[in-house]
């Protein structure tokens, strides 16, 4: 975790420096020169806001998701079903060399499960009552393997860091684009006449640009989210066999239960998002996930 964060921040700093120089050159070529030092301060402040906010969400993810989904932790199994669930997660965690995560159940008719937590040693794996009722033991085991693969791959951390970088660039480019457009609009106006209207126009343009760049940024984050789902499917197949994972995904295809309302963050954590519009989906279509597993060698 510490090494990953160190190299992450090194990468971010390098990207910000290169980005600042590139933006400065482009703006100068367009006739709107920017002070590189001021630009770096702007990008740095946006980075603190964008990345800092994402890290706060990461550290609070476990408790906030537990509250929103009303997850009941299994501290001591009270029946055979809970005992089987805890024992199965422990068995898969041992195979992957993971510390035993917290285990929880939440009441929902849909077939779903998720993993969260800010690092591999502080994870939570939770499953819905609908999944436990509708799937057979092999299918449930495959789903648990998928969720523990997310933990093993550090997906919660990586997705948060990707979101932080995207947030930084969305805020930075929105600010710069708004400033340039405002400068173009105010050419030829006196400073006294344009100062108040310029400030209002700049703020309005900033929010418009933030929306536009936000759509592009969301598409990037969702692409990475879909990529990590393929990896988690493969991680489960490697440990438990691809047939069980394919069978579990086939069962998810037939899930016609009412969809439980979730935030976008929670949707990204779940095995089955049931979204529409692939570009902004947190998960690939189930048919594509099944095909990817079928094409894997045994």
From TrEMBL:
<keyword id="KW-0346">Stress response</keyword>
<feature type="transmembrane region" description="Helical">
    <location>
        <begin position="38"/>
        <end position="60"/>
    </location>
</feature>
<keyword id="KW-0482">Metalloprotease</keyword>
<protein>
    <submittedName>
        <fullName>Heat shock protein HtpX</fullName>
    </submittedName>
</protein>
<dbReference type="GO" id="GO:0006508">
    <property type="term" value="P:proteolysis"/>
</dbReference>
<keyword id="KW-0378">Hydrolase</keyword>
<keyword id="KW-0812">Transmembrane</keyword>
<feature type="domain" description="Peptidase M48">
    <location>
        <begin position="82"/>
        <end position="296"/>
    </location>
</feature>
<keyword id="KW-0645">Protease</keyword>
<keyword id="KW-1003">Cell membrane</keyword>
<keyword id="KW-1133">Transmembrane helix</keyword>
<dbReference type="GO" id="GO:0005886">
    <property type="term" value="C:plasma membrane"/>
</dbReference>
<comment type="similarity">
    <text>Belongs to the peptidase M48 family.</text>
</comment>
<keyword id="KW-0862">Zinc</keyword>
<dbReference type="GO" id="GO:0046872">
    <property type="term" value="F:metal ion binding"/>
</dbReference>
<dbReference type="Pfam" id="PF01435">
    <property type="entry name" value="Peptidase_M48"/>
</dbReference>
<feature type="transmembrane region" description="Helical">
    <location>
        <begin position="204"/>
        <end position="224"/>
    </location>
</feature>
<feature type="transmembrane region" description="Helical">
    <location>
        <begin position="165"/>
        <end position="184"/>
    </location>
</feature>
<keyword id="KW-0479">Metal-binding</keyword>
<dbReference type="InterPro" id="IPR001915">
    <property type="entry name" value="Peptidase_M48"/>
</dbReference>
<dbReference type="GO" id="GO:0004222">
    <property type="term" value="F:metalloendopeptidase activity"/>
</dbReference>
<feature type="transmembrane region" description="Helical">
    <location>
        <begin position="7"/>
        <end position="32"/>
    </location>
</feature>
<dbReference type="InterPro" id="IPR050083">
    <property type="entry name" value="HtpX_protease"/>
</dbReference>
<keyword id="KW-0472">Membrane</keyword>
């Amino acid at each position: 975790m510490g090494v990953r964060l160190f190299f992450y921040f090194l990468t971010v700093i390098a990207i910000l420096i290169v980005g600042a120089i590139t933006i400065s050159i482009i703006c100068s070529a367009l006739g709107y020169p920017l002070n590189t030092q001021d630009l770096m301060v702007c990008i740095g402040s946006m980075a603190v806001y964008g990345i800092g906010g994402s890290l706060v969400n990461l550290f609070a993810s476990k408790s906030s998701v537990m509250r929103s989904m009303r997850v009941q932790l299994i501290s001591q199994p009270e029946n055979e079903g809970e005992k089987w669930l805890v024992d199965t997660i422990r068995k898969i965690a041992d195979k992957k060399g993971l510390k035993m995560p917290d285990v929880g159940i939440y009441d929902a008719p849909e077939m779903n499960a998720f993993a969260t937590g800010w690092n591999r040693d502080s994870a939570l794996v939770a499953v819905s009552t609908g999944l436990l009722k509708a799937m057979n033991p092999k299918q449930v085991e495959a789903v648990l393997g998928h969720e523990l693969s997310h933990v093993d791959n550090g997906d919660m951390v990586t997705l948060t860091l990707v979101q932080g970088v995207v947030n930084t660039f969305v805020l930075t480019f929105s600010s710069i684009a708004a400033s340039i457009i405002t400068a173009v609009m105010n050419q030829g106006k006196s400073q006294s006449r344009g100062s108040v209207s310029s400030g209002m126009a700049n703020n309005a343009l900033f929010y418009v640009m933030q929306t536009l760049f936000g759509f592009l940024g969301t598409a990037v984050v969702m692409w990475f989210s879909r990529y990590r789902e393929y990896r988690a499917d493969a991680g489960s197949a490697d440990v438990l066999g691809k047939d069980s994972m394919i069978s579990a995904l086939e069962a998810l295809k037939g899930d016609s239960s009412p969809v439980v309302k979730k935030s976008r963050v929670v949707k990204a954590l779940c095995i089955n998002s049931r979204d529409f519009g692939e570009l902004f989906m947190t998960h690939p279509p189930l048919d594509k996930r099944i095909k990817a597993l079928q094409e894997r060698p045994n």
